[in-house]
Specification:
Layout (H helix, E strand, L loop, with lengths): L3 E4 L1 H8 L14 E5 L3 H6 L1 E2 L3 E2 L2 E2 L2 E2 L12 E5 L8 E4 L4 H7 L10 E4 L2 H9 L7 E4 L2 H8 L4 E2 L6 H5 L6 E4 L3 E5 H4 L2 H7 L3 E4 L15 E3 L14 H14 L3 E5 L5 H14 L3 H11 L7 H15 L12
Parallel strand pairs: 1-10, 2-4, 2-7, 7-10, 13-16, 14-15, 14-16
Antiparallel strand pairs: 3-11, 5-6, 8-9, 12-13
Helix pairs in contact: 9-10, 10-11, 10-12
Length: 322
């Protein structure tokens, strides 16, 4: 039986935006997203690609079209579940409440312990899959509040429509730092939806970003080559991002394809911000963006940056992880 775990909104956002050459949503065994709210709520709006869960004779039905054993990500949400357990009040008399007052404080007075709909259905799913089943923390209300652009009324998604889906930049620090590619940085809708107000461009390309306001754009002009030197820019990069975080800006770090130079830049900033090893920062970015792949020259410079920050080399970059 699989585990039941919580999934933060930023995790689901990043799952929805993973890419290879195209969006990973086109892969039949990549993501199965279940909505256990009422039909009325689902019809009003739901998260893209979500399937509505139905009941028969008070039992949840598992969609026959889904091979749960092979699905990598199985995520369930209801309206607002934020705990694996929930309490609802009982009708009790004053006399009963007085009697309850002497009981152990761990028992909720005048309340019953019940599961939220997402947790209830999630426990059913754990019997059919080998991967953990995730419960979206805060449910639809929290997710749609953060990422309103992923609301839809569309029920059936054709393969061609998923082929044409344009992913958003990956979220590295929720609501503060995003990691993307050049086309996303040039997309006005992406800028508006994510409220991007500052850019770090780690590529040779140029674009019309904040014309007349150079303080909101840092352009590090380097080729995607093992010979390119990014280490000399790390202090300026970290200073620029820190200033904009202090100002409350939302920052997009990007490069041509968003998998090498920009990833190295984000790893370097996290190492600086958290005073942590290359390995820990690398793992965080890798968990957010599955296809990150900085070239070897960038990796060796990140190791030098680790020595600058921590005073010594700590990470073993001969590990296949790098």
């Amino acid at each position: 039986m699989a585990d039941l775990v919580f999934c933060e909104p930023t995790e689901l956002y990043n799952i929805l935006n993973q890419v290879t050459k195209l969006s990973r949503l086109i892969e039949p065994n990549y993501l199965c997203l279940f909505d256990v709210r009422s039909k009325r709520e689902y019809d009003e709006s739901h998260v893209i690609t979500a399937l509505r869960v139905k009941k028969k004779d008070n039992e949840y039905l598992i969609p026959a079209s889904v091979d749960l054993e092979c699905v990598k990500y199985c995520v369930v949400y209801d309206s607002n579940t934020s705990s694996m357990e929930m309490f609802i009040p009982n009708a009790t008399t004053d006399e009963e409440e007085d009697e309850e007052g002497d009981k152990d404080s761990s028992n909720q007075r005048g309340q019953d312990l019940v599961q939220g709909a997402a947790v209830e259905f999630g426990r059913v799913l754990t019997q059919f899959t080998h991967h953990p089943v995730s419960i979206l923390r805060g449910g639809y209300e929290r997710f749609s509040g953060l990422y309103h652009f992923f609301r839809t009324q569309k029920i059936i998604w054709m393969p061609q429509e998923l082929d044409e889906f344009r992913p958003y930049p990956i979220e590295i620090i929720p609501g503060k730092i995003f990691l993307g590619d050049f086309s996303q940085a040039c997309n006005p809708k992406v800028q508006k939806d994510l409220r991007i107000s500052a850019h770090v461009n780690v590529s040779m390309e140029t674009g019309p970003f904040f014309v007349g306001d150079p303080d909101k754009l840092l352009h590090i002009k380097i080729e995607d080559s093992s010979e390119s030197k990014i280490l000399p820019f790390f202090r300026h990069l970290c200073h620029f991002i820190e200033i904009h975080l202090h100002l409350g800006s939302v920052i997009l770090v990007f490069s041509t394809r968003g998998i090498s130079r920009s990833c190295a830049a984000v790893v370097a900033f996290l190492m600086h911000k958290k005073q942590e090893t290359l390995k820990r920062s690398w793992t965080h970015v890798k968990n957010c963006k599955n296809n990150m792949r900085p070239n070897w020259g960038l990796v060796t410079q990140l190791l030098e940056w680790e020595k600058t920050i921590l005073g010594d080399f700590v990470t073993d970059i001969s590990d296949p992880l790098y």
